[in-house]
Amino acid sequence: MNEKDWELLQTLYEMKNITKAAEKLFISQPALTYRLRSLENEFGVEIAKRGTKRLQFTSEGEYLVEYSRKMLNELAKTKDQLLNMAGNIQGHLRIGVSSHFAHYRLPTILKDFLAVYPNVQVNVTTGWSTKISQKLERKEVHIGIIRGSYEWKEQSILLNEENVCLISKNKIHMGDLPSIGRISYKTDPIFDNMIKDWWNHHFSQPPMVTMEVDRIETCKEMVRNGLGYAIIPQISLRPHDQLYNRILAIDNHPLLRKTWLIYSNSALDLSVVKAFVQFVTTQLRQKAHSL
Questions:
Q1: In which residue ranges of the chain is pLDDT below 50?
Q2: Which of 160, 247, 251, 261 is most exposed by smallest CB count within 10 Å?
Q3: Which family does it belong to (predicted)?
Q4: The CATH classification of domain 83-161+258-290, taken from the options 3.90.550.10, 3.40.190.10, 3.40.50.620, 3.40.630.10
């Protein structure tokens, strides 16, 4: 097995579909199928059962997938260390980022960072914070940027703290909310529970959810057209949205959504990781002094 085989197994396991995996790897479906059969012949095991819709990995296949993940991590670590030995700030910086923060804040941070360190190549993975923390634990990324309260036993820096807001096209009275349609969107369990706790503190009946969408921006567009109200983190609001918004609180304590930068102690051995952490903390200090 080589690096391409490791990547092939990882992609197949992620997609669970030969056609989709071939598209992601930019190879033909017959070429992928041939390589998969070659691997099965090499190890004398069936790696995955070909169903009508999804691949089902055997226990032997699962073992090889885990092996390939470890080998890709070791290869990446070796490349990182070799570049680190050169003494320059260069190489790959792998960051896992919460989707919302990646959309609203990360582009500016990366633009400014790369202006200072142009020889760094940044690889970004986005997703739910739970997924990002898992990737950091498996050392698939150097740094994680997550939202909410997750237990992380090593290093963490508070990046951002914002209010949670109710938004609507026009001003609405809080007491009328149970009879007004809410537009909800997919979010992580921690934020979802925060909203539920706030609702249960103020109302005895459940909210009237009339629409469920997959993205905050879609949700905001529905609200902008007067189709209901929504509850979103303040990071998602922009001046041009021109929406009525009200900060939510429980017993006069505002609901707060926190964003954390997390990393392992050993990650600081890499000059590129250390440079990014120092860059971000310097930005935070400058922002605090300007307030």
A1: 291
A2: 251
A3: Belongs to the LysR transcriptional regulatory family.
A4: 3.40.190.10
